[in-house]
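Students often ask why inverse folding is considered easier than folding. One informal answer: many sequences map to the same fold, so there is more than one right answer. In these notes we will look at a single instance of the problem. The structure comes first.
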């Protein structure tokens, strides 16, 4: 009992250390990102062709720049966050499992970049175009910078993180934690779960934006099942 308790405490201490390292990494990169936040904010506003945006409270412009800096901190430190995650779970894996998991770190970075790019080039422009199309001569948008930046950053970060989901499922199937045939039999439940996750992450909650985000995820999900089946056969 003493040995088990010590081992459990050691795991908690290791988890605490990795979380502190991750928070420190995000914080350091966020401080650096704060000096580029204003320029990045201008790029964001130009991307949506909003013209002039407005803030309705004295501190809102400053808080908006802090949000942008935190976003830049998370994005830039994402490889470091993946490394901290692997460092925590790596000792608990076998040699073959560690070899498999290491190969997924690079794939996770690629999918994160693809998710961010998808949000920037497809989800945000088409989502905004759809939402703003409900305006009229009597109903004109007065874009608040705080509301807009929440929409923009959640779309980018949500897309980047959600694009990790199919890779995680494939990784669990490769390790044998999830069975390929079981996942195929419960495909309908998995699709519903993906749609719910997309609805939670999507800042607006409208059907069009949900559809834009969920379709590529469902395609990646099917590809992960196919790749796991081929890997199992080989």
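Output (designed amino acids):
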């Amino acid at each position: 009992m003493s040995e088990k308790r010590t081992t459990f405490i050691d795991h908690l201490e290791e988890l605490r250390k990795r979380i502190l390292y991750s928070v420190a990494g995000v914080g350091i990169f966020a401080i650096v990102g704060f000096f580029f936040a204003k320029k990045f904010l201008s790029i964001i506003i130009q991307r949506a062709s909003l013209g002039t945006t407005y803030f309705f409270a004295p501190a809102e412009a400053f808080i908006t720049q802090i949000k942008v800096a935190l976003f830049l901190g998370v994005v830039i430190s994402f490889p470091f966050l993946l490394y901290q995650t692997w460092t925590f779970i790596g000792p608990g894996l076998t040699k073959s499992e560690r070899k498999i998991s290491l190969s997924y770190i690079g794939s996770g970075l690629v999918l994160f970049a693809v998710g961010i790019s998808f949000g920037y080039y497809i989800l945000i422009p088409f989502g905004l175009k759809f939402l703003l199309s409900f305006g009229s001569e009597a109903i004109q948008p007065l874009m608040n910078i705080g509301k807009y930046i929440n929409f923009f950053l959640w779309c980018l970060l949500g897309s980047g993180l959600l694009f990790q989901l199919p890779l995680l499922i494939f990784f669990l199937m490769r390790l044998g934690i999830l069975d390929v045939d079981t996942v195929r039999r419960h495909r309908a439940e998995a699709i519903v779960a993906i749609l719910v996750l997309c609805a939670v992450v999507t800042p607006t909650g409208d059907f069009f934006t949900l559809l834009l985000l969920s379709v590529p995820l469902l395609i990646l999900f099917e590809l992960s099942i196919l790749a796991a089946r081929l890997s199992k056969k080989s």
